[in-house]
Design brief:
The protein has 496 residues and is α/β, with parallel strands linked by helices. The protein is 39% helix and 22% strand. A hairpin with a 5-residue loop joins strand 14 and strand 15.
């Protein structure tokens, strides 16, 4: 038998025990079968369990995970966690409040705090909006594994959820139809087992083994984040995510505990400075990245280079597709990924749980065995989620294109973006409200992006001077065209 973990007592097999729990424990049969006890898997299990659904949750290993991303939860994610009744999972894990970002651009810097005015409307009346201002929202940064352990504890304690520590290996489909009936699993690498449900949901992460046959788009990976853990590192702005920009791809710094700060260094594939002759990735970090960091950060970064492990995570792009397979759905990073530069992954995941759990509630779907109705809800979910996810997906990819600028046109867009933040007011509140999952109006993103493009052209004109104005006109058209090249492919991804 697979290892079973839940909060029921040893007497749970007595006749007075919950028949649904016995059905899960003995017959491995439930209303919902969830593969993967990560952020989305645990949250979805609890959300559906709260609706009275019988849930089986499978996880290969329930040891506390240790990874270098999934450590910053935006305010929109905190809000979703609260709606799901899981806000307490952020307590007692040494989580650090995050009040916004600081962007370092060569020798300049600008703070972009999360906005008190969350409308994000560029045409709003400032006087009226001031009356609606409230306490600025906050995100949280933490050790990923501690947060996952708290989410798993919530699932383990739920009476409608049974957790099995086993590895799902193969989907089980009907002999006569394409419907998915459940999964085959392997426990301790030797023992086969089978689990069944009306609805099977794969949330097994960026390297999903179940995605390929059901998701017609393959993930694109053009760079990796290399992570170091800095100890007792003084940051330029406490309780802020720090984005370091310059001649190289971006570096992120954010505190994940009382004494620990995460450094994430984006390294695109094929850089000459990462060649074996130049000392590989460690040589790049030592010779290229270290000198570009703020002075107060450099000693802790140097110590982490010398003493700590250096780990990597692929930065993937994967547009979402509609779940169309009867009895089966893919969610989380297995369904949709974007560059983690903006820290939006967990916010997307938790928002998806809020949306899909509402759409699958017994009010709308009395029985999850009503396959046609479930598929109809997932088709609607594909579009309903985009009020938030399209913003975070597009913004993450567009900002990465600017922040990792590789030609002169992108460099001007990068400079224009920084000058835009320096203007303050809605030029800060709008973009960071979008980034934080607070503002959920996709057109606001398009508006701000093209304002940045126009300001970039103005910066170019000023730098060239009046004598080169004809040249500036030509270059300005090229910069604007580059802005279109940056954003339109990502908009198209969201319209599919």
């Amino acid at each position: 038998m697979p290892l079973i973990l839940d909060s029921t007592s040893e007497s749970s097999l007595e006749p007075t025990a919950d028949p649904q729990e016995q059905r899960r424990r003995i017959h491995h049969d439930a209303d919902v079968l969830i593969i993967g006890a990560g952020v989305l898997g645990c949250a979805l299990a609890v959300a559906l369990g709260n609706q009275g659904r019988s849930v089986i949750l499978l996880e290969r290993s329930l040891k506390e995970p240790d990874r270098i991303v999934g450590e910053l939860l935006q305010p929109g994610g905190v809000e979703a966690l609260t709606k799901l009744g899981l806000r307490h999972t952020l307590d007692d894990i040494d989580a650090i409040p995050v009040t916004g970002y600081t962007v370092l651009f060569y020798d300049e810097n600008v703070r972009i705090p999360y906005p008190a005015n969350t409308t994000g409307d560029p045409f709003a009346n400032p006087a009226k909006e001031k009356l609606k201002a409230h306490r600025r929202p906050e995100g949280r940064a933490f050790h990923h594994g501690r947060f996952i352990s708290k989410l798993r504890a919530a699932a383990l304690a739920h009476p409608n959820i049974t957790v099995f520590e086993t590895e799902a290996t193969t989907l089980i489909s009907s002999t006569y139809t394409s419907q998915i009936l459940g999964v085959q699993a392997m426990t301790r690498k030797t023992q086969k087992d089978f689990f069944f449900a009306s609805l099977t949901v794969a949330c097994d992460g960026y390297a999903s083994k179940f995605r390929k046959p059901y998701h017609h788009i393959a993930p694109q990976v053009k760079s990796k984040f290399w992570g170091l853990e800095l100890i007792d590192c003084p940051l330029p702005t406490p309780q802020n995510g720090i984005v370091c920009l310059g001649d190289n791809p971006p570096v992120l710094l954010y505190q994940i505990g009382t004494h620990e700060t995460r450094a994430l260094v984006d390294i695109p594939d094929g850089l000459d400075s990462t060649s074996t002759a130049n000392g590989g990735v460690k040589g790049h970090l030592q010779k290229v990245v270290l000198p570009s960091l703020p002075k107060q950060v450099q000693p802790a970064f140097q110590a982490a280079l010398e003493n700590g492990p250096i780990r990597s995570m692929p930065n993937s792009l994967l547009p979402a597709t509609t779940n169309k397979t009867p009895g089966f759905a893919i969610l989380g990073d297995a369904l949709n990924m974007r560059h983690p530069l903006t820290g939006g992954g967990m916010t997307v995941a938790l928002n998806d749980v809020v949306v899909i759990s509402d759409m699958l509630s017994p009010q709308y779907v009395p029985d999850l065995a009503q396959t046609d109705l479930v598929l109809k809800q997932f088709r609607a979910f594909h579009w309903r989620r985009k009020n938030l996810t399209s913003i975070i997906n597009i913004l993450a990819q567009a900002l990465y294109s600017l922040f990792a600028a590789s030609d002169w046109k992108l460099k001007y867009l990068q400079k224009g973006c920084f000058r835009y933040f320096q203007r303050g007011g809605n030029c800060v509140d709008g973009p960071v409200g979008l980034l934080g999952g607070i503002i959920r109006q996709p057109l606001v993103l398009i508006d701000h992006f093209y304002r940045v493009a126009l300001l970039s052209i103005w910066v170019l004109v000023l730098e060239n001077g009046i004598l080169l104005f004809p040249l500036s006109l030509v270059q300005g058209v090229l910069v604007f065209w580059k802005a279109c090249e940056v954003i339109f492919p990502f908009i198209w991804n969201e319209l599919r």
